[in-house]
TrEMBL record:
It catalyses: shikimate + ATP = 3-phosphoshikimate + ADP + H(+). Its EC number is 2.7.1.71. It comes from the Bacteria. ATP binds at residues 11-16, 118. Its cofactor is Mg(2+). GO terms for biological process: amino acid biosynthetic process; aromatic amino acid family biosynthetic process; chorismate biosynthetic process. This is Shikimate kinase. Keywords: Amino-acid biosynthesis, Aromatic amino acid biosynthesis, ATP-binding, Cytoplasm, Kinase, Magnesium, Metal-binding, Nucleotide-binding, Transferase. The keyword Disulfide bond does not apply.
Amino acid sequence: MNNIILIGFMGSGKTSIGTLLARKLSYDFMDTDQLIEKRAGKSIKEIFALDGEEHFRKMETDEILSMQDYLQHTVLSVGGGLPIRTGNAEILRKLGTVVFLKAHIDTLKARLAGDTKRPLLSGEEWDKKVTLLLQSREPVYENAAHLIITTDSKCFEEILDEILEKIVEPI
Ligand SMILES: Nc1ncnc2c1ncn2[C@@H]1O[C@H](COP(=O)(O)OP(=O)(O)O)[C@@H](O)[C@H]1O
Ligand SMILES: O=C(O)C1=C[C@@H](OP(=O)(O)O)[C@@H](O)[C@H](O)C1
Ligand SMILES: [Mg+2]
């Protein structure tokens, strides 16, 4: 098992840190949102609007199921909702070392303010949605993870170093 999977809430830094970590390790980088956008030929926002969230969730599961056949030496960032769907966390844990990038709600809200790409945050009540979603999702992330890294007040380099220090698997 030589893959690293980053999970966590929207804004926890999965895509940014995944990109940097892969570069540092000379691993491939993949991000389920990017793969799905490419496959569908439209943005996540358009998929939600035109096909519905359930269709998107099915695409997420299909993506990680197919990875079981090929994923190697890869840092994989997954969308914030992916580990929540029944069965997905188990698939992720088989794919590699699952790292939960944890952040305080205030940190997440500050990072997500003004976002226009994430359909779940559209509308005026977005910060209330963040509070409710985070409450329900955090225990799922904690259960799914082999390793939890808190990211509040840490720069990217500090987070990368901590992940590499704490990962037990030889990589
Ligand atoms: N540790 C951090 N320090 C400063 N900014 C961060 C940190 N982690 C994430 N960000 C910022 O938060 C935003 C969301 O990051 P992103 O990597 O897209 O998160 P995710 O993929 O988990 O939704 C980006 O603007 C990113 O630069
Ligand atoms: O939390 C979620 O349900 C989602 C998170 C997003 O990815 P990030 O976690 O990378 O923002 C993206 O998959 C989609 O907007 C739905
Ligand atoms: Mg992302």
